[in-house]
Automatic annotation (TrEMBL):
<comment type="similarity">
    <text>Belongs to the short-chain dehydrogenases/reductases (SDR) family.</text>
</comment>
<dbReference type="GO" id="GO:0016491">
    <property type="term" value="F:oxidoreductase activity"/>
</dbReference>
<dbReference type="InterPro" id="IPR036291">
    <property type="entry name" value="NAD(P)-bd_dom_sf"/>
</dbReference>
<keyword id="KW-0520">NAD</keyword>
<feature type="domain" description="Ketoreductase">
    <location>
        <begin position="11"/>
        <end position="192"/>
    </location>
</feature>
<keyword id="KW-0560">Oxidoreductase</keyword>
<dbReference type="Pfam" id="PF13561">
    <property type="entry name" value="adh_short_C2"/>
</dbReference>
<dbReference type="InterPro" id="IPR057326">
    <property type="entry name" value="KR_dom"/>
</dbReference>
<dbReference type="InterPro" id="IPR020904">
    <property type="entry name" value="Sc_DH/Rdtase_CS"/>
</dbReference>
<protein>
    <submittedName>
        <fullName>NAD(P)-dependent dehydrogenase, short-chain alcohol dehydrogenase family</fullName>
    </submittedName>
</protein>
<dbReference type="InterPro" id="IPR002347">
    <property type="entry name" value="SDR_fam"/>
</dbReference>
Length: 258
């Protein structure tokens, strides 16, 4: 397969969670591969920074201030993207939040908030993108963001892990439903990645957590946003044209499920 298989010139991508972390790295890399990128997030300042970085590198970007847990807002943003650049060829549904609490202390509002963003937000983006692709007859690639949490039991991460497990099931079901439309659907399940989401402790605690994760990785390190963005690019591109319904696990070898 020639390296041109990774060329996204002339294609449009819609990326949620694009204001920071994995979402920003994904938006930057897809733009570098030639795509016109529509960046969606709630953080306006971060969105502007992402768009500016893309434009300074010679790419084309648009921004959409949107709460992914709001179905109507997601569909409005997708409609605006289609109006500006045509139907998406790529969706990267990256937006997510973190919550930690023991199972016995988990409240309804904790579970509802995480499921609203981490599962429903992905569902709404997938629905909006898929409908646009089907209506236009555009072969496409939908990439969801799962997590290494679906492969291990992590104390305190019930809400997060359950939402990401739901994303995996959504991915597989949607892949089975959309294959006849030449739309591929795959998930990326990162291990520990150094992002604003994981950087929620004091510096010392953060370093200790990263060191612990690095020790159990065969590669001896934690991930960077760019590591995950490259996995997304692979799934977005023609290099993965025979891949659908799969979970790609860039996790440093921490989990090796059969």
């Amino acid at each position: 397969m020639p390296v041109t298989a990774y060329d996204l010139t002339g294609r449009t991508a819609f990326v949620t969670g694009a204001a920071s972390g994995i979402g920003r790295a994904t938006a930057l890399l897809l733009a570098d591969a030639g795509a016109t990128v529509h960046c969606a997030d709630l953080a306006e300042k971060g969105l502007t920074e992402t768009r500016t970085a893309i434009e300074n590198a010679g790419g084309t970007a648009h921004t959409h201030l949107v709460d992914v847990s709001d179905r109507a807002a997601v569909h409005t943003a997708m409609a605006a993207a289609v109006s500006a650049s045509g139907p998406p060829h790529v969706l990267a549904a990256v937006a997510g939040i973190m919550h930690s609490s023991p199972v016995l202390e988990t409240r309804d509002e904790d579970l509802d908030r995480v499921m609203a963003v981490n599962f429903k937000g992905v569902l709404y983006a997938c629905q909006a993108a898929a409908r646009s692709m089907i209506d236009a007859g555009v072969p496409g690639s939908i990439i969801t963001m799962a997590s290494g949490a679906v492969d291990t039991a992590n104390p305190g991460l019930l809400c997060y892990g359950a939402a990401k497990a739901a994303v995996v099931q959504l991915t597989r079901t949607l892949a089975a439903e959309l294959g006849r439309h030449a739309i591929r659907v795959n998930a990326v399940a990162p291990g520990w990645v150094r992002t604003p989401m994981t950087d929620r402790h004091d510096v010392q605690s953060q370093r200790q957590a990263e060191a612990a994760m690095a020790r159990i990785s065969p590669l001896g390190r934690v991930g960077e946003p760019a590591d995950i963005a490259h996995a997304v690019l692979h799934l977005a591109s023609d290099a993965s044209s025979f891949t659908t319904g799969q979970i790609l696990r860039p996790n440093g070898g921490v989990a090796m499920p059969w």
